[in-house]
UniProtKB/TrEMBL annotation:
<dbReference type="GO" id="GO:0046872">
    <property type="term" value="F:metal ion binding"/>
</dbReference>
<dbReference type="InterPro" id="IPR013658">
    <property type="entry name" value="SGL"/>
</dbReference>
<protein>
    <submittedName>
        <fullName>Gluconolactonase</fullName>
    </submittedName>
</protein>
<keyword id="KW-0378">Hydrolase</keyword>
<feature type="binding site">
    <location>
        <position position="99"/>
    </location>
    <ligand>
        <name>substrate</name>
    </ligand>
</feature>
<dbReference type="InterPro" id="IPR051262">
    <property type="entry name" value="SMP-30/CGR1_Lactonase"/>
</dbReference>
<feature type="domain" description="SMP-30/Gluconolactonase/LRE-like region">
    <location>
        <begin position="14"/>
        <end position="253"/>
    </location>
</feature>
<feature type="binding site">
    <location>
        <position position="149"/>
    </location>
    <ligand>
        <name>a divalent metal cation</name>
    </ligand>
</feature>
<keyword id="KW-0862">Zinc</keyword>
<feature type="binding site">
    <location>
        <position position="195"/>
    </location>
    <ligand>
        <name>a divalent metal cation</name>
    </ligand>
</feature>
<feature type="binding site">
    <location>
        <position position="16"/>
    </location>
    <ligand>
        <name>a divalent metal cation</name>
    </ligand>
</feature>
<dbReference type="GO" id="GO:0016787">
    <property type="term" value="F:hydrolase activity"/>
</dbReference>
<dbReference type="Pfam" id="PF08450">
    <property type="entry name" value="SGL"/>
</dbReference>
<feature type="active site" description="Proton donor/acceptor">
    <location>
        <position position="195"/>
    </location>
</feature>
<dbReference type="InterPro" id="IPR005511">
    <property type="entry name" value="SMP-30"/>
</dbReference>
<keyword id="KW-0479">Metal-binding</keyword>
<dbReference type="InterPro" id="IPR011042">
    <property type="entry name" value="6-blade_b-propeller_TolB-like"/>
</dbReference>
Length: 282
């Protein structure tokens, strides 16, 4: 793809987990410890709430409530009207940091535990994918995951995709209505290490390849169909939103995660027209 992206928001640190909701793009500005939102074309991004636990994954429940994962405190937080309320404490379950997260149509959150703290120099350990809902509590959905990252659910709700960063792969699972995963398999072996991702209506997955400084669109057969390259930026996250979900929003940053509070304005959200509309979750 040769299209030139347009700037949506600047002055960020490490923009994670973009989610389109009610005409706004919500996202985690991780190292500035705040949840943000922006209405494209209508001014600067605004702070939804600060979060001391360092926001990472986020998504909206079917009733419209926003749930945010705290990477450092390993807790899930409801966010409403600029206030936070504890939803669940996963600190006794997770051995690493909480990472990306999505919410399925049944109102069940899926959140990855990295297994170790990469930024603090920890050695690689297997991570875990958890599910959580107010009714079911916390469940271990998948184990021995190599740094769980971006997540997506197919439009029919029957397939869950998980980016395993250190495996350089997208793993797929069959997903039941009851929230059980089965038939674990490799959907695509990638050219680099994936971070965030999203689905389109043609069955393609847009994937941020962090160290390659590229976004790849992976077709149904696992092959690369489109590439977006950024010479001087880390490619972090993406989502399809806007009218008809025809806009690809991408998060990039020059920031290297060293585990400290970062306030340098080196991260951005950009957008460009997508070849296919968004589908599924997120």
């Amino acid at each position: 793809m040769n299209a030139m992206p347009s700037l949506v928001a600047g002055g960020l640190s490490w923009p994670e987990a973009p989610r389109w909701h009610n005409g706004h793009l919500y996202f985690s500005d991780c190292h500035n410890f705040r949840v943000m939102r922006v209405k494209p074309g209508a001014g600067a991004a605004e702070i939804v709430t600060p979060l001391e636990g360092r926001p990472s994954g986020m998504d909206f429940f079917p009733d419209g409530r926003l749930l945010v994962a705290g990477a450092l405190d390993r807790k899930l937080w409801w966010v409403s009207d600029g206030r936070t309320e504890l939803a669940a404490d996963l600190s006794m379950h997770a051995s690493g940091l909480l990472n990306d997260m999505i919410v399925d149509p049944q109102g069940r959150a899926w959140v990855g535990d990295t297994g170790f703290n990469l930024a603090a120099g920890g050695r690689e350990r297997p991570g875990t994918l958890f599910s959580w809902s107010p009714e079911e509590g916390v469940r271990r959905a998948a184990e021995n995951v190599r740094f769980p990252n971006g997540l997506a659910i197919a439009p029919d709700g029957r397939t869950l995709y998980l980016a395993e960063t250190f495996a350089s792969a997208i793993t797929a699972f069959d997903l039941s209505v009851e929230g059980r995963l089965s038939n674990r398999r490799i959907h695509a072996q990638l050219e680099g290490r994936p971070d965030g991702m999203c689905l389109d209506a043609d069955g393609g997955l847009w994937v941020a390849l962090l160290w390659n400084q590229e976004f790849h669109r992976i077709g149904r057969n696992g092959n690369v169909t489109h590439r977006l390259a950024f010479e001087h930026e880390r490619t972090v996250s993406c989502v399809l939103g806007g009218p008809g979900r025809r806009t690809l929003f991408i998060g990039t940053s020059e920031l290297i995660d060293n585990g400290t509070t970062q306030t340098r304005g080196e991260g951005t959200i950009k957008c460009l027209d997508a070849p296919f509309a968004g589908a599924g979750i997120p």
